[in-house]
Amino acid sequence: xxxxxxxxxxxxxxxxxxxxxxxxxxxxxxxxxxxxxxxxxxxxxxxxxxxxxxxxxxxxxxxxxxxxxxxxxxxxxxxxxxxxxxxxxxxxxxxxxxxxxxxxxxxxxxxxxxxxxxxxxxxxxxxxxxxxxxxxxxxxxxxxxxxxxxxxxxxxxxxxxxxxxxxxxxxxxxxxxxxxxxxxxxxxxxxxxxxxxxxxxxxxxxxxxxxxxxxxxxxxxxxxxxxxxxxxxxxxxxxxxxxxxxxxxxxxxxxxxxxxxxxxxxxxxxxxxxxxxxxxxxxxxxxxxxxxxxxxxxxxxxxxxxxxxxxxxxxxxxxxxxxxxxxxxxxxxxxxxxxxxxxxxxxxxxxxxxxxxxxxxxxxxxxxxxxxxxxxxxxxxxx
Length: 383
Hints:
Protein name: Acyl-CoA dehydrogenase
CATH topology of the largest domain: Butyryl-CoA Dehydrogenase, subunit A, domain 3
Number of strands: 10
Helix content: 40-55%
Largest sheet: 4 strands, mixed
Radius of gyration: 21 Å
InterPro entries: Acyl-CoA_DH_CS, Acyl-CoA_Oxase/DH_mid-dom, Acyl-CoA_Oxase/DH_mid-dom_sf, AcylCo_DH-like_C, AcylCo_DH/oxidase_C, AcylCoA_DH/ox_N, AcylCoA_DH/ox_N_sf, AcylCoA_DH/oxidase_NM_dom_sf
Keywords: FAD, Flavoprotein, Oxidoreductase
Strand order of the largest sheet: 1-4-5-8
Number of helices: 11
Domain Acyl-CoA dehydrogenase/oxidase C-terminal: 233-381
Shape: globular
CATH class of the largest domain: Mainly Alpha
Order of helices and strands: HHHHHHEEEEEEEEHEEHHHH
GO molecular function: acyl-CoA dehydrogenase activity; flavin adenine dinucleotide binding
């Protein structure tokens, strides 16, 4: 069972076929090994870049192809179909790099963007701290003006691409006394090898094993003034603007994961027999499959509409919060139902559903918890 993305055009379909062919050769055969090694090799990043699958929306002068959002949707969905551990590519393409392309200076763009598109630079964005997650205004990392440099001091955690990252966009306070607090936040681009920048632990997670997640440490880190992204004190506004797309990326991945899990389970219940007949012949199985298929179909329709509106530049803050909450919540429930329908085999590592069951819960936590999503929705209702 394959559910087609409805708003894509012929050029998107051609691109999708090329990406599928590439992943069948370069990703699917090796993904299990990457999961065991707990890391995606840098060589795969460069191969993605060589084929034009990194940052395709960038202008050609910066190494991109000037594509629309539909191409990003395809990349995120097809990578999710391989495995959720490839989430770092979506973060690079559609979350971190857009801060540079929209708010960066021309000098910064020329310096970094071509290498982001080629895979020679892997990016990360460092917002979360040990004591500050959803409350971004409460971060404690500081950057003190020292003339030609900022003296950056603090610690970040749960950073996607943290071990591989060559360029980290760090949310910090350049004015700790600002009132309200969020007005003192700025964004600094910290490069690999910068004095005072080090990596802590590569975090041991329940799922997403192949995706490197790390602690980042800044101990009086010297960051050149020219690495300030946009204007000082505007970091919070920049993050709020970009979180809309970040949450859309998460919703896209959750929907794709749900579709994969349904496909896996449909195949299993058709072939697995119990009491002399296929498991899929039992009414309970049929009802469970019907419920999941309906939720997935409705999720796909909503997501297609949302992606179309994003391409058109519409404000999707309210709807994307709904999608991020509902589609990740659907995926968590579908993962549990599908594992149950696999019986004891669902608990075995050799079956893909076991990995999917581990990987999906974090989607309801990162990019703003689902509780935060509900608060945003309620605010939009005037409550």
